[in-house]
Amino acid sequence: MNAVEGKREFLIQQALEAREYSYAPYSGFCVGAALLGKSGTVYTGCNIENAAYGPSNCAERTAFFKAVSVGEREFEAIAIAGGPGAEEPDDFCPPCGVCRQVMMEFCDPEEFLIILVKSAVQTMDYKLADLLPMGFGPGNLGRQDQIKEGGEL
Q: Phi and psi dihedrals of 59, rounded to 5?
């Protein structure tokens, strides 16, 4: 059993629960994410809106930024659940383009698993490469080693 399969159900549950912390007074669209680091640690995030809209942050990026801020730089998978209000999502919620680009910064697109969550039993799996074909990342700049080492050049 690989690391993701061992934590899959936990990731899904954590993503659904993270929606409860969403701050979405303008859209009413609540998103939760649970990110699995290669260390085995799970980082959760929720979307955080702002009246000026631009400073808003998605759940996926919140989880990534929490992880990176404590030194995690390599990731296995993310589960994402989102929908209107507090009720169970009625559809799948794929990551936005900006979140996909952040994933590309830290993840192997051929290996990183994205689990879209509609309910605890309704999910869809994708690799990052499926959702961001021909993505631009650190490898394009010859900098992939710096990501693992903490970003120093």
A: -60, -40
The answer, as to whether pTM is greater than 0.70, is yes
Residue listed under structure tokens 């998978």:
77
According to DSSP, the residues that pair with 34 across neighbouring strands are 44, 79
Q: What is the mean pLDDT of residues 53-71?
A: 97
Annotated catalytic residues are: 60
Between β-strands 29-37 and 123-127, what pairing exists: parallel, antiparallel or unpaired? unpaired
List, as one string, the DSSP characters of the chain: --HHHHHHHHHHHHHHHHGGG-B-TTT-EEEEEEEEETTS-EEEEE-B--TTSTT-B-HHHHHHHHHHHTT---EEEEEEEEEESSSPPSS--PPPHHHHHHHHHHS-TTT-EEEEESSSS-EEEEEHHHHSTT---GGGGT-HHHHHTTS--
Nearest residue to 47 (alpha-carbon basis) of 65, 11, 20, 22: 22
Q: What is the pLDDT of residues 106-119, one digit of tens each?
A: 999 999 999 999 99
**CA-wise closest residue to 113 among 121, 123, 69:** 123
Q: What are phi and psi of 32, to 5 degrees?
A: -130, 150
